[in-house]
Amino acid sequence: MDKKDYSLKIVTPQGLHSTFEKVTFCSVTSKTGEIGIYPGHSPSLFELNPSQVNITCNDGGSLMFVPSGILHISEESVSLLVPYIETMDDISEKRAEEARNKAVKRIANPIGVDLLRAEQSLLRSQERLFLLSQTKKN
To answer: How many CB atoms lie within 10 A of CB 49?
Structure first.
C-alpha cells in the first residue's frame, strides 16, 4: 500500500459495486472486533459481522452497511466481498425497527424458530438502527 492512501473495492455477487480511490481510513467490524485500516496496514483476511463501513477519502467519505462478508487487505488495496451493501439512502428506519421487533419476539418464544437466523436478523437490524442514530447526531 502507498503510505498516503490506498484503493478500496466493494464486490457483491453481481460484480464490482464501487471503487474508492485515495482512501485514508476505513473501519468495519469483524468477528474478532473493530478493524481500522490505515495506509500501510499489514496484509490480512477477516470475516465480517453485520457492520457499518466507514470510508474516509482525501475528498470526503462514505458510510454504508454490510450484513456480512470478507475483508481482504493486501499490500496495494483493500477489498470487501459482501452479499450486498446498503447506502444510507437504502436503509429504512421503519423496516429496521420492524425487523428488530420481529426478531426479539422470535427469540423470546423460540419454539419452531430458527434461533440462529433470528439472532442474525436482530444483529443486522440493531446495526442499521445504530448507523441511522449516528448519522442523525451529525
So the answer is: 20
Tell me if 20 sits within 8 A of 39, measured CB to CB. no
Are 114 and 74 a contacting pair, CB within 8 Å?
A: no
Question: Residue 78's closest CA among 109, 54, 110?
Answer: 54
Amino acid at 65: F
Asked if residues 64 and 85 have their Cβ atoms less than 8 Å apart, the reply is yes
Enter the pTM of the model: 0.80
> Which one, of 52, 48, 33, lies nearest residue 91 by Cα?
52
- Identify the burial level of 51 via C-beta atoms within 10 angstroms of its C-beta, where 0-12 means exposed, 13-18 middle and 19 or more buried: buried
Tens-digit pLDDT profile for residues 56-96: 998 888 999 999 999 999 988 999 999 999 988 888 899 99
Cα 82 to Cα 17: distance, rounded to the nearest angstrom: 10
